Automatic annotation (TrEMBL):
Record's protein name: Bet v I/Major latex protein domain-containing protein
Gene3D superfamilies named in the record: 3.30.530.20
A Pfam short name: Bet_v_1
Family: Belongs to the MLP family.
Domain Bet v I/Major latex protein: residue ranges: 2-151
C-alpha cells in the first residue's frame, strides 16, 4: 500500500530571507528570467500571482525533457515565510498520486536557509524516490539566489 513520503532539500542562500521569500510570493512571473535553464515559462491561470487559491502553469526542463505542472497555492504564511503548493496536473503526476511542495525560508546571518519539502505518494510502490526533483529544486534555489544578488 502506498504511503505519503517526504523528501527535504536545504540550501544556504546569500540573499536575505525577506528578499528570497518575496521572489516566490510576489515575483514568480520572473522565474524564467531568474532561472532560464530550468524554468522556460509560467502562466497565471486563475487568481493573481501571490494569493492562496491562485493556479499557475509551469513549463520547465528536467533531464533534457520539456515538462509542465499545474499547481495551486494552498497556503502562504508571511510570518514564518512558508508557502505550500499542490500539483493539480502535469508530467510529474505520471509518477505521483499526489505531490505537494512546502517552501520555507529562515533568516540566517546576512543570508538565509531555504528548505523545500516534497510530500508525495507514488503511483506504484516500486518507483524510486524523486531525487531528480530534489536536484532540480536545489539548482532552482541557487539560481534564484544568484539572480537576487545581481539585481
Amino acid at each position: 500500500m502506498a504511503q505519503v513520503r517526504r523528501m527535504d532539500c536545504h540550501v544556504e542562500a546569500k540573499s536575505s530571507a525577506d528578499k528570497f521569500f518575496d521572489a516566490y510570493t510576489t515575483k514568480p512571473h520572473l522565474m524564467p528570467k531568474m532561472s532560464n535553464q530550468l524554468i522556460t515559462d509560467i502562466k497565471l491561470l486563475q487568481g493573481d500571482w501571490d494569493s492562496v487559491g491562485s493556479v499557475r502553469q509551469w513549463y520547465y526542463a528536467l533531464e533534457g525533457q520539456s515538462l509542465t505542472v499545474k499547481e495551486v497555492i494552498e497556503k502562504i504564511d508571511d510570518t514564518n515565510r512558508t508557502i505550500v503548493y499542490k500539483a493539480l496536473e502535469g508530467d510529474c503526476l505520471k509518477f505521483f498520486k499526489s505531490l505537494n511542495y512546502i517552501l520555507n525560508v529562515t533568516q540566517m546571518g546576512d543570508g538565509c536557509l531555504v528548505k523545500c519539502t516534497m510530500e508525495f505518494e507514488m503511483q506504484k510502490d516500486d518507483i524510486p524516490d524523486p531525487v531528480m526533483y530534489a536536484d532540480f529544486l536545489n539548482t532552482l534555489i541557487k539560481n534564484v539566489d544568484a539572480f537576487l544578488l545581481e539585481n
